Amino acid sequence: MAAWGERLAGVRGVLLDISGVLYDSGEGGGKVIAGSVEAVARLKRSGLKVRFCTNESQKSRRHLVAELRHLGFDVSESEVTAPPPAACRILKERGLRPHLLVHDDVRSEFNDIDMSNPNCVVIADAGESFSYQNMNKAFQVLMGLENPVLISLGMGRYYKVTSGLMLDVGGYTKALEYACGVQAEVVGKPSPEFFKSALREMGVEARQAVMIGDDIVGDVGGAQRCGMRALQVRTGKFRPSDEHHPEVKADGHVGNLAEAVDLLLQHADK
Amino acid sequence: MAAWGERLAGVRGVLLDISGVLYDSGEGGGKVIAGSVEAVARLKRSGLKVRFCTNESQKSRRHLVAELRHLGFDVSESEVTAPPPAACRILKERGLRPHLLVHDDVRSEFNDIDMSNPNCVVIADAGESFSYQNMNKAFQVLMGLENPVLISLGMGRYYKVTSGLMLDVGGYTKALEYACGVQAEVVGKPSPEFFKSALREMGVEARQAVMIGDDIVGDVGGAQRCGMRALQVRTGKFRPSDEHHPEVKADGHVGNLAEAVDLLLQHADK
Fold first, then answer.
1. In this complex, do B178 and A177 lie within 8 Å of one another by their Cβ atoms?
2. Once rounded to an integer, what is the mean pLDDT over residues B100-104?
3. Which of B140, B176, B177 sits opposite A164 (nearest CB)?
4. Mind giving me the DSSP string for A124-189?
5. ipTM of the complex
């Protein structure tokens, strides 16, 4: 067992990233990362609190949870913190009516939001819907607003699917920021607000929580800035250079979720 | 006549931006900006040196010049400084074999470039070819390189066509920069090297030259940083806020190219 495992003393709650930690998404529902189904089950049996904290914004929570359950994971919609519901709360609070640049699958999350006469743009991981035409439409909406508001569901650089690495929403948000001269408001990891809402929903303080993710910046760096500990798994989009990242140092690296759970069950408070 | 017109004393050469100054591109070959055909003719008759300096990277020079001649402009390919030939010189000098993320119309400019086993990406204004699939392919090529090189033909934010504002290459370059953690090398305005090559081809020193463009940052700011004077026309992508830009102050604003030429013929050295 890794010597740094002792750093996990006092952990009472675990936030789990989904894509790249539980499974790699892709054609036909994706592929389980070996040992992860059992690892989630062991965590849940251990008495530690568990919550799923994802930047998934291409699928509705319903679709995501159905995919995970089909793969054997014990997970329900109410255990998932995801950007679309957080964005809907913000839109309602501020009276914002979005033009959506999102994947068709996630539109249903915005069903009770007024979208007439848009006064902001919400961008999410739209995948193939990131056509020039759709990007240009969002650009034109922003350029037509006196006070342009751009809300980005996450700022991921890329993610891994079974066929390889894929561009995530972050680059497309940067494109609109540059073209329109605006700065996006990020809803999702690594926004502190987003981590805090996941901690609230789990009922654990930041100093008692650990984040487990495959993204050195979005998962590990973001969680640490909130006062949490954070482990990076060597699955999903992990790259060896992440272990020498110029700005972010994980509290520990593990081969995969199963190894992380072994360490947690040895060192954490249960 | 504008009082600042006296600042044009000593001008011997004029660099003209094309899109937004001579014409607005668009369906059916675009639309002349009123008075510009005659303004170019008068400039050429005046004895001032004239060169066209464009970031057009969606059309080949041949196509661009044919479009302009059809609209009545007196212009030939040899009078146009454009990014693709400048990029080809760089690719050859450095032994770079590009993966092209460009519009089909401009591929012919790269006909004598080796594109086997790519070791860099060249991105240009690809228009409708900025599909998710094409962006992702360029991303994957860069992520597969040990020393990723990204060459961007211009960094334009947007341009105006007859139907409205359109996203230019700059945002898409920012997207790849962010996703891959690289910084693009820009070939085109506002790169000083590009302005200098246009000045060399015109045979005029920077201090004796004026740039006329519709882009406050790319045309006006870029030319000024090279020691040129620069006028912004209130046509093309001009927006009233450009006259109070936080970083760039044009040497003068004119309603259109015809007005700029009136001032030049009054004040410049002929």
1. no
2. 97
3. B140
4. ---GGG--HHHHHHHHHHHHT-SS--EEEE----EEEETTEEEE-HHHHHHHHHHHHT--PEEEST
5. 0.87
